[in-house]
């Protein structure tokens, strides 16, 4: 039996502590906050998108950074295994098939997930230390021996699992402080915001603030490679946000940190140019914006007319040239993305400890013996849809059974 120290009481840390304790290890879980799962509590708007109900094989295409690294983790503890775990602990959940097969608690309360994990930790005699901030690692002869706490206390152990998260949502305690400690021993890949709103150069974008658009396609090209995402989006005074935008952001965040990028938005990807033209002309005695009412929000259509310096008129009075301009704008609005809203507003961190220095089959450091990593502290991230939480649970479980 080993003495295992887990640093960080988020989803990956709690799962690591549980897996280790169920393997008959003595486990101490150190949490810097006064409660467990503080970031988990606010995910999914408080609903907590636990995982996704797609086949585990489909998860890899949703991973943005270092997907191959996750093979052992995902297959050792799958989404099915996770849901079975919650079932066995009487947590009821629901699968929203209409919403990309996302899985939520039946009550839509993230607290239920936290309570389930916490009760299981207590049941398995995990010692939880609250309001304890780890400020350094105790390393001798390239082997971990324990951790140092802010008040000068030393906690010694045989194995240490780092589950401290990234830099997103810093108010929850996930402020990236552990990176400053770890970079003395490991390669730290540059940190970028992921799943974050995008800023846009065009000043007129603020005129569209608050307009929500459903099922759009946003695409761009980086070094001749086309990146395309579909889903809902929302115009904001600074640019763009919403599920489709957040997904796209993770794929372009490194590029736009130093470059501007042209975004193309197709607001009606299910309609051809010809079909939109027919709708515009649908009722010749009605105004064009009225004809488009069933397809697009009226305030959006009005702004398109303003941008094109057009006056709304009856369809039979609209010139063919102006009709083509309208259709072109609906099918391919061009915007200049010049950045993101930053790490504090991002849902996930891109970057972190290099996967080249971690054994993917155990999550143990290749540099420091008996030191393990889980979750967002590692340079791995995925799109929205429950995939990042599954990464947390899977890597946490694998580390926990490997100590």
UniProtKB/TrEMBL annotation:
Its cofactor is FAD. The keyword Flavoprotein applies. Keywords: FAD, Flavoprotein. Residues 192-348 form the RsdA/BaiN/AoA(So)-like insert domain. Transmembrane segments: none annotated. InterPro entries: BaiN-like, BaiN-like_dom_sf, FAD/NAD-bd_sf, RsdA/BaiN/AoA(So)-like_dom, RsdA/BaiN/AoA(So)_Rossmann. Residues 3-400 form the RsdA/BaiN/AoA(So)-like Rossmann fold-like domain. The keyword Zinc does not apply. PANTHER family: OS12G0638800 PROTEIN. This is NAD(P)/FAD-dependent oxidoreductase. It comes from Romboutsia sedimentorum.
